[in-house]
Every structure is written in structure tokens, then in C-alpha cells.
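Per your request, structure below.
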């Protein structure tokens, strides 16, 4: 502190330490207050108020921050989580098994009698529609998720190899992809299901997977055609890194965003497709295995008899599931788009 300032203080020009702090500015203010209070830590804290805080976020945190701004997708994620939980704990939330029935309640409308068995009514044989919906969620969701993951896995591997190597490898793989794309899906599934393994869940998953990988393969190939010319790929090649490591460790993380979105949307597509083939009578058979599709197949004649509940509740759950997955896909698409700002 200068002599003139000390003289002014002694003469009463500045009456308090707070007044002195205001006079000399914020950089000295904290020191003056700390001298009065005897707390150097507080002086440091006061000075930190003028520092710029930098928050470093991981890639996952950035994606989650963008995703939660999509309110509809966030609600859809919660609803889909509840549907998955319902499928997992189906034996705990239903008092009847997947094949149990009570003829005394045949065609019973929704009621709270013997809760929760008949809360959604019963079919002609006395199966609880609530039990059918809960157990059917297991098979429908399993077929949708596993088929989508399998198709994306095969498509990613073939598309990555095709796009990275190009040349004759790309030509052979893409012509094979064109052949698979030209196969009529439903006629082939109906034929195979009729003559080979009718009603088998694993067979349905296998057919869905083997006939649906070309779409993600073409998408991944288009990204690899671009990324193989980037500087980080050329640098990895110059460093002597193997092709497989470049394909799956250096380029693949940059192509994960569209793969995740396509996989999510394919889950909804496969759930609807499974319901379609069940409705046509060439999918999973019920009894003994309920799915939302074959429940609707068994209920198509009941609507004319006035038993609306048999088809309404499975159809409603199917609709809600497909909508939630599509909304989640929209949210992921926006969250993974690096061109969008928070």
C-alpha cells in the first residue's frame, strides 16, 4: 500500500476496510477482507469468482446432454424401459402362466375380479389377455432386438470390409448384397416356415437377420468410402498399423452414430414384421408361445362377435412399443449429429 494511501486512511478519508477495497478494485478487495477476517482461504475463494470455469465432458456425456433435450425421446425411453421390465418380470406380475386358462372366464370382458388376471378380459378358452400380453412382450421384443443386432453386426462387418478395401472385394460383396436384396422377403419366409420349422422363434430370428443385413451394410460402406481417405487413416497406414485394426479400431468409432440409429429403428421394424407373419399364420404359433402378433391373429374373428378387448390391448401395446422405439431413434439421431449445437 502506498504512503499517500496510508496517509489518507489515517486522516479518515476512507472510514473502513470495505471502503478501501471498493476504492482500489476487486483484485485487492479479497485480500483486504481476508486481512480483516484472518482467513486467506476466503481470499482465494473470492478471487476464484473471477476465474473462467471450463467443464470437460466425455463423448457419452455430450450425447446424453443432447438426447435429454429431446423430451419426447426421453419419455419414450422411460416407457420402453417399463415395457422391457414388464417382459422380464412377467411371472411376477401375472398370476397365470402363458398357457394357463380357466374355461369359467371364457370371453369374459375386462374386470377387476381375481385381480389382475382378468383386468384385460379373456379369450374364448379362458386365457387371460393380460398374461398373454405380458408373456407375448418377451417373444416380440426378443425377436425385434436380437434380429436388429444380428443384422447390424453382419452388415457392419461386410460393409466395413467392402468400403475399406474397394476394388474386386467391394464388387463381390456388393453384388452379393444386391442378390440378397432381390429376394422376396415374405414369400421366402412363408415357404421356409411351411416346409421346415414352422413356429420356431430361433428360426424366425435367423431368417430376419440373414435377409435384413444388406441395408446396414450399404450404409456402413458409404461411410468407410469417405473415412478411408481421411488423414487419420493415412497416418495409421504410415505407422504400420494392420488393416483390421484400422477398420475396427480407428474408423468404426466414427461410423457408430448411423449404425446405432439404424439398429434402433430396425427393432421397431422387426417387431411389426414379426406381428405380420404371425398374423398370416406362418410365424410363432400360440399356444404354446404367445406373441402380440399371434394374439391378434386369434382375435380377428372375435371383433365381429363384439369381444373388442381381445384385439385392443395387444394391438395397443404393439402400437406403443413401435412409437416409443421410433421416438428413441429420432432422439438418438439428433444426439449423435455433431453438427447440432447444445
Amino acid at each position: 500500500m502506498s504512503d499517500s494511501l496510508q496517509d489518507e486512511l489515517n486522516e479518515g478519508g476512507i472510514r473502513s476496510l470495505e471502503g478501501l477495497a471498493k476504492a482500489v478494485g476487486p483484485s485487492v478487495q479479497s485480500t483486504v477482507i481476508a486481512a480483516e477476517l484472518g482467513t486467506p482461504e476466503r481470499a482465494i475463494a473470492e478471487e476464484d469468482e473471477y476465474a473462467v470455469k471450463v467443464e470437460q465432458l466425455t463423448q457419452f456425456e455430450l450425447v446424453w446432454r443432447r438426447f435429454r433435450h429431446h423430451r419426447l425421446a426421453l419419455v419414450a425411453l422411460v416407457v420402453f424401459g417399463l415395457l422391457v421390465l414388464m417382459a422380464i418380470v412377467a411371472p411376477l406380475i401375472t398370476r397365470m402362466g402363458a398357457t394357463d386358462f380357466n374355461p369359467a372366464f371364457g370371453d369374459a370382458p375386462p374386470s377387476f375380479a381375481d385381480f389382475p388376471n382378468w383386468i384385460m378380459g379373456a379369450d374364448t378358452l379362458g386365457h387371460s389377455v393380460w398374461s398373454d400380453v405380458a408373456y407375448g412382450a418377451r417373444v416380440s421384443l426378443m425377436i425385434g432386438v436380437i434380429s436388429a443386432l444380428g443384422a447390424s453386426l453382419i452388415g457392419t462387418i461386410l460393409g466395413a470390409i467392402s468400403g475399406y478395401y474397394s476394388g474386386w472385394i467391394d464388387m463381390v460383396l456388393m453384388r452379393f448384397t444386391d442378390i440378397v436384396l432381390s429376394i422376396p422377403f415374405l414369400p421366402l419366409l412363408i415357404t421356409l416356415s411351411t416346409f421346415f420349422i414352422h413356429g420356431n422363434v430361433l428360426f424366425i430370428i435367423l431368417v430376419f437377420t440373414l435377409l435384413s443385413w444388406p441395408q446396414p451394410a450399404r450404409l456402413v460402406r458409404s461411410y468407410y468410402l469417405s473415412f478411408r481417405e481421411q488423414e487419420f487413416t493415412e497416418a495409421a497406414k504410415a505407422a504400420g498399423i494392420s488393416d483390421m485394426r484400422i477398420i475396427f479400431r480407428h474408423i468404426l468409432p466414427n461410423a457408430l452414430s448411423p449404425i446405432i440409429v439404424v439398429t434402433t429403428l430396425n427393432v421397431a421394424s422387426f417387431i411389426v414384421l414379426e406381428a405380420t407373419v404371425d398374423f398370416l399364420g406362418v410365424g410363432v404359433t400360440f399356444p404354446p408361445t404367445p406373441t402380440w402378433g399371434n394374439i391378434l391373429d386369434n382375435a380377428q374373428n372375435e371383433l365381429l362377435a363384439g369381444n373388442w378387448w381381445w384385439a385392443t390391448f395387444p394391438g395397443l401395446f404393439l402400437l406403443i412399443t413401435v412409437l416409443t422405439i421410433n421416438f428413441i431413434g429420432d432422439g438418438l439421431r439428433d444426439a449423435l449429429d455433431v453438427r447440432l449445437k447444445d
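Residues 3-48 form one domain.

Regards,
D.
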